[in-house]
Amino acid sequence: MLSDSEHKMCVVVLFGGMSSEHEVSRVSAGTFVDQLDRQRYELLT
């Protein structure tokens, strides 16, 4: 069990939108998620 000081910070990644940059946003979000340190952060889906 984790102590209070060891709790993981929860992270939500928002991306997209209806624009010509949608695909760039999607790729950037995917890169961020892939690089997220899962021992320190909890990714909420």
Polypeptide structure, described:
This protein has one domain. The model has no long low-confidence stretch (mean pLDDT 91). It is elongated. The protein has a two-stranded parallel sheet. Helices cover 31% and strands 13% of the residues. Strand 1 (9-11), helix 1 and strand 2 form a beta-alpha-beta unit. It is built from one helix and two strands; from the N terminus they run βαβ. The chain has 45 residues and is α+β, with helices and mostly antiparallel strands.
Order of helices and strands: EHE
How many domains is the backbone divided into? 1
Question: Which residue ranges are poorly predicted, with pLDDT under 50 across at least 5 consecutive positions?
Answer: none
Q: In this structure, how is the largest beta sheet organized? A: 2 strands, parallel
Straight-line N-to-C gap: 22 Å
Spatial order of the strands forming the largest sheet: 1-2
**Strand tally:** 2
Give the fraction of residues assigned to helices.
25-40%
Radius of gyration using CA atoms only = 14 Å
Mean model confidence by pLDDT:
91
How much strand? 5-15%
* Structural class based on helices, strands and sheet pairing: alpha+beta
Number of helices: 1
What overall geometry do the principal axes of the alpha carbons give? elongated
In short:
It contains 1 helix and 2 strands, in the order βαβ. With 45 residues, the chain is of the alpha+beta class. The protein has a two-stranded parallel sheet with strand order 1-2.
Strand and helix layout:
Layout: E1 9-11, H1 22-35, E2 41-43
Parallel strand pairs: 1-2
